[in-house]
Request: fold
Amino acid sequence: MLCDVAAAAVSLVGTVALVALSVAKTPLVPVAHASEEPVTEAMQRVETHALATHAPPLAWDARSGTFFAADRAAPDALPFDLENAIVRRARQEVERGVGYENGYVAVSGYPMGDIRSDRGACTDVVVRSLRAAGMDLQLLVHEDVLAAPGHYRLPIVDTNIDHRRISTMHAYFARNAMSLTTDVREKDAFRPGDIVFFSWTRCPSCKLDHVGIVSDRTGPRGYRLVLENGGPHAAENDSLDRGSLVAHFRALSRP
Reply:
């Protein structure tokens, strides 16, 4: 099972520690991938977008390899455009009624490979949503696995499935992304587009069972909703405090 029984899928453990690409740690990059040349192209796209939509100005942060907006919601928040792109794509899973698929399925290719668009697991919601912000987890996770196999300890490296395993995905974020509070009472700490990992059992004996995307909508209890696919179809639920919240990440480089 990719979500409910991820650790048993292929005897995979994916140490909660995770690595940087090559000797210097590669951050999450919301452009094609880490290189010097895309920066200019990306900035041109940003400037064109700002002129067309009167969007807030963006600047390039060479340290983190990402964009930041001067008027973003919080110092450590993604630009509004990226938050919105992630959430919109996650919500499309719900609107399309994407069914649950938790078995091994060969993807369409590498990079940017995917399974059938009408099927997916909890991890596929995250993969597809972050691609809307320019981050291909299939590529990033695979290169991280090759750069530091000891941190993942995968018996077989497979671009069809590694990025879709919940334990491997968690390990990648734990090593590369900004880690945030798991206390759901800190409601303001949860931003749209954040990635949240759950266990259905209480810690410290908890294991990774599920992952979802934090919504831009709030439920009647004051918690942000979660865009997820735990079966039978993708849904937007008031489930942030369901089970144990074991990890909370934002797609910004780990400080």
In short: Residues 5-26, 29-71 have pLDDT under 50 and may be disordered. Strands lie at 58-61, 66-69, 99-100, 119-120, 177-179, 195-199, 210-218, 224-228, 235-237, 244-253. The first strand starts at residue 58 and ends at 61.
